Amino acid sequence: MRATQIAVSALAVLGPLAPACAKKGGAATVLAAEDLQTQSPATFDAGEILAPVPMQDATALDAGTVGQFLQSTPYGTPSFLADYSSNGVPAADAIATAAQRYSIDPIVFLVRAEMDDGLIASTTYPSPPSRVEYAFGCGCTAPGSCDPTYAGFDVQVDCLGAALRDDLDAVAATGQTAGGWGPNITSTTLDGVEVTPADDSTAALYQYTPVVAAGQPGGNWLFWNLWNLYAGALGYTPPDAGTSPASWIGDACTADTVCSYEGTTGTCATQFPGGLCTLSCTGSCPSSSSQAQTFCADFGSEGGFCLAVCNPGDPQCRAGYACESVKQFGDTPASMDVCFPK
Predict the structure, then answer these.
(1) 75 and 32 Cβ atoms separated by less than 8 Å
(2) DSSP state string for 272-289
(3) By C-alpha distance, which of 181, 204, 205 is closest to 194?
(4) pLDDT per residue over 64-115, tens digit each?
(5) Which of 277, 274, 340 is CA-nearest to residue 312?
(6) Cis peptide leading into 128, omega within 30 of 0?
(7) CB 301 within 8 A of CB 290
(8) Tens digit of pLDDT for each residue in 215-267?
(9) Residue 323: how many CA atoms within 13 Å on its side-chain side?
(10) Residue 82: which of 118, 50, 116, 125 has the closest Cα?
(11) 313, exposed or middle or buried, with CB in 10 Å at 0-12, 13-18, 19+?
(12) pLDDT by residue (tens digit) across 257-277?
């Protein structure tokens, strides 16, 4: 498919919806005592569960740091996830990979793993197995009724990332999620609390779990409380609230200022799912040994634009993007597989 065709067809398109999730918050019986003890001196604000910058700080932790956290949890014991793999993928790698793919802070996945199923505090493989293999209820229409193709902690983590990214992208595209949660829009939660989200990240969290449940399991108070516990244990400090983490070519974005490539400011193509960091080019694109390889793709009469290279066998493209072969800009027969909007 040519880049010009994709550029037209991708306008106002959001990534595919993640499979429905049947679980939205764990019961008190699977949680550690510390989970329900207030962890922050700050006053809980139902309208600001987590700010946008830390929510989307995908580089906050690498797989090694996630693994270290699982070995030395805030509960004083290692989590069984430290040595657990599903479908051949270690839990720490699954979290780090999903964080990068969907531009979500890895701590979010750790928080949900404990919030939904008490998996961080569990020292041994928990019972029933569904607490792990269907940790976030992806592919499940009801407890005990789940699609086996979604079995595995790694698959569930990816599905959670896709769901959160879909909701963030929906807010970016339309101002609200499919359920009507959006910044400065007042909605009522399932437990009868009127909430006005302050930002897209809080709106996405309420779309996923439309419950407050202050001081109790199962709602966004617990997410806020666990975030404070885990971020404190990790010594995590989010990037300055007035800025966003620098994004590489192919990453999600909301404005040109976040697209920075070794000092070169790029362009945020907001018409694509979740925004797309790119840069106009005539043949070559910025490169970095620590970032995805880039390619100057031919956009026909619009010129050339830099995109992230992908491997068709293991594409790892963001939600809403597919690994497609595209011609290089200029008078050359060269082509390359890159992540393009679907």
Answers:
(1) yes
(2) STT-EEE-EESS-----T
(3) 181
(4) 999 999 999 999 999 999 999 999 999 999 999 998 888 899 999 999 999 9
(5) 340
(6) yes
(7) no
(8) 999 999 999 999 999 999 999 988 765 555 578 899 888 778 788 887 677 88
(9) 11
(10) 125
(11) exposed
(12) 788 887 677 888 888 888 899
For the packed helices 91-102 and 106-117, what is the interaxial angle rounded to 10 degrees? 120
Q: What's the CA gap between 191 and 179, in Å, rounded? A: 16
Tokens found for residue 2:
């040519």
**Using an 8 Å Cβ cutoff, are 58 and 104 in contact?**
yes
- Phi, psi of 83, deg, nearest 5: -115, 15
pLDDT at 9 over 50: no
For 328, phi then psi, to 5°, come to -75, 145
% residues pLDDT > 90 (the chain)? 57
Q: What CA–CA distance (Å, rounded) separates 65 from 88?
A: 20
Query: How many Cα neighbours within 13 Å face the side chain of 282?
Result: 0
Domain locations along the chain: 28-234, 246-341
110 alpha carbon, distance to own chain's centre: 12
Express as a percent the part of the chain with pLDDT over 70: 90
What Å distances lie between residue 26 and 40, 92, 112, 114, 140, CA to CA?
Answer: 21, 21, 9, 8, 15
Q: Does the reported pTM lie above 0.85? A: no
Structure tokens at 303: 């010129």
Residues 194 and 188: beta-carbon distance below 8 Å: yes
Place of tokens 């830390």: 54
Residue-level pLDDT at 318: 83
Contact 25, 116 (CB under 8 A): yes
